[in-house]
Structures are given as structure tokens and as C-alpha cells.
Write a structure and sequence with these properties.
It contains five helices and six strands, in the order αββββαββααα. It has about 190 residues and is of the alpha+beta class. A hairpin with a 2-residue loop joins strand 3 and strand 4. The longest helix is centred in the last third of the chain and has 14 residues.
């Protein structure tokens, strides 16, 4: 909230404590989804506030790993850290081989279907952070790769809606709602 509140100059009335959201989830907290218990644990790296949710042998891993042939999430957003992502992935890799890791994104090559999940065993062959890749090697790879990536096309509008828990910005004095584009940042 602080980082993007400042970036978009959201003003003194914008709450920086996350009170826009129905619930803030703590590391180690258990949430109920109907009869299913979801254990939340921090998996920072892509952003500092990233979490994963585990139900039995399934983990919803957010922006950590992509399919093994595509690699890992970028770490160059504010609060992102390749060190943290490596350690988060290392934590995931300690799960049993058959654990299903549900992906947040998949980027299949032309002609292939996207996949919803991979297993820990499959991820141990991940091109960015598979077995045998050291923390230092991963950090160097992520730094080089992230420097080559463009800013996602819809990132700036999405942040401004996401930071408000899915709500549009308030109308300005002319009655119009605006999404801002900071032209000399990011």
C-alpha cells in the first residue's frame, strides 16, 4: 500500500494499512473454504507479500513457479527479491514429490495447451531453479532475465484497481474516475 500509494500519489486519505480488504492473511494462518482447510504460508519473491495456500497435497503457489520449462516469476517489481523467491521455491521443493503445485500463470509454447499444475518432482527440473541451481546462480539469472523484460502492458491500471480491493478510484471533482500513468517512474 505504501509503495504504490506513493507512486500513484493517492493522497493522505488513502489507507496504507490494508483496511480496503476484507481480510489480510498472516503467515501460518488457516482459512476455511467450505469444508476445506487452507494453510497459508509466505512465499515472497515476486512481491514481498506473496503467499501460497495448501490443502492436503495441493498448493496454490501464486507467482512463484511457472511450468518447469518456463521457469519462475520475475522479481523486479517493488518489494520483489530473487533471494526471497529462491528461498520460497526451496521451501516448496521440500514437499513430497507428488505434491501438486497449482500455477498462477502458464505460458505454453504455440500449439501446446496451458497446464493448471505441475508436481514437485516435475519442478525439480525447472529451467531456472531446478536441482543443482545454487542461490547465487538463480539470483544472477533472475537479475539478467528481469532486466530484459518489458513492464506488463496492464500492470499500472491493474495495480490501481487491486490496491483498492477491486474498486475503481474515487471520481475527481469533475465526476470522472482516472487511472494514472506515472511517466517518469517504473
Amino acid at each position: 500500500q505504501k509503495t504504490f500509494g506513493q507512486l500513484f500519489n493517492l493522497g493522505r486519505d488513502f489507507a496504507l494499512d490494508g483496511s480496503q480488504f476484507d481480510k489480510l492473511i498472516d503467515d501460518g494462518e488457516t482459512l476455511m473454504c467450505g469444508d476445506i482447510a487452507l494453510s497459508a504460508f509466505a512465499t515472497p519473491g515476486h512481491t514481498s507479500d506473496s503467499i501460497s495456500l495448501q490443502a492436503g497435497d495441493a498448493i496454490f503457489i501464486g507467482d512463484t513457479l511457472f511450468s518447469p520449462q518456463y521457469g519462475t516469476a520475475r522479481c523486479d517489481f517493488p518489494g520483489g527479491s530473487a533471494v526471497d523467491l529462491y528461498r520460497s521455491v526451496s521451501r516448496l521443493m521440500k514437499e513430497p514429490d507428488e505434491t501438486r503445485l497449482y500455477l498462477c500463470h502458464d505460458y505454453p509454447v504455440a500449439g501446446e495447451q496451458p497446464v493448471a499444475f505441475s508436481t514437485v518432482k516435475q519442478q525439480k527440473k525447472n529451467i531456472h531453479v531446478g536441482e543443482g541451481v545454487s542461490e547465487a546462480e538463480f539470483i544472477a539469472l533472475r537479475k539478467q532475465r528481469d532486466a530484459e523484460l518489458d513492464l506488463p502492458r496492464l500492470l499500472l491500471p491493474a495495480i490501481q484497481v487491486n490496491i483498492r480491493a477491486g474498486n475503481w478510484p474515487d471520481p475527481e471533482d469533475n465526476g470522472t474516475r482516472y487511472l494514472k500513468i506515472p511517466i517518469n517512474k517504473m
